[in-house]
Amino acid sequence: MTITLTGFMGCGKSSVGRALAALLSCSFVDLDEYIETREGRSIPDIFKSEGEAGFRQIERDALGEVTACRPGGQDNCHHGPDAAGREEMLVLSLGGGTLTTPECLELVRARTLCIYLRASTDTLVSNLEKDFERRPMLNGFMKEENTGTSADTGKLRLRIEQLMGQRASIYENAAIHITDIDGKSIGDIAQEIACRLKDLSSKQENRKTGNTRRNTVWDPLRKKEIMLTPEEAVRQWCIRELLHGQMKVPMHMMMSETGFRLGDKLFRADILIYDREAGPLAVVECKRPETRLDRNVLEQTIRYNMALSVKYIIITNGTRTVILRKTREGYLPEQSAPEYEEMLK
After folding, report:
1. Full-model pTM
2. What burial letters (b/e) apply to 44-60, b meaning 16+ CB within 10 Å?
């Protein structure tokens, strides 16, 4: 089993990875270090000669080698079976931009358990303000007119916010668990991840041996195991479709099974989609698979949600999905599923 650590530059992936590997008594690989050894040159040198596109190709090949256990033969295998025939565990720290390559994202999802080390902008600025020169994605932005003043810190903050705006949802979508690192020591972060992995391993073992009284499913929005009811199966299908289907809703713009107040009324949504100002943009109602989405069901759902005055109402039973958009004439059905960016217009 391979455990990958993802997150922005400066969040401590390498340090946490080494500490976690020590706790788990397993091997550790830093993908950037692996690439430098493989290529015989530093990451900045690769960026300088090959550009970002060339580096991402090299990074993709290296990730495939490490996770497939085939970099030059079994002698270089980091996580093959041990002497007892059990799969050896590996902790692998990724580069900050590794998951921005779609092929790398799919490799991580398919072959690893991914943990996202999430840090605030303040923490990242503090960790990177004296350590950006060896990071090509920061250095190229910072080196112009760098004077070592507070203005440069503002420039670094801007760059971090720009890149995080592009990457945060990618990190979240890939991860089975998010660990917030602000104010925590390397040891505490590693211990927290080790405990989470132990819980996941126990649940997987229970499923294999039948030592479980109920089936559960991992909810990527609530970040926990949920009892798998017929309604929950529809909700989890819907979440996957919203994330990876035509609508491409960012994970951090959704919440599931959430209660919220509007004026003096309390509402509950199976899934709530937010706009960029954190206002309700769409409400998703998930029905049991056998529920027919007839006129009565649609009208009842619309009446319940009219007080919210959301732009979109989505109703699904996992087989049929109806998307309604608010117009001057009321809520009318959409002919096709809109992308998230289109919904914001």
Report:
1. 0.56
2. bebbeeeeeeebbeebb
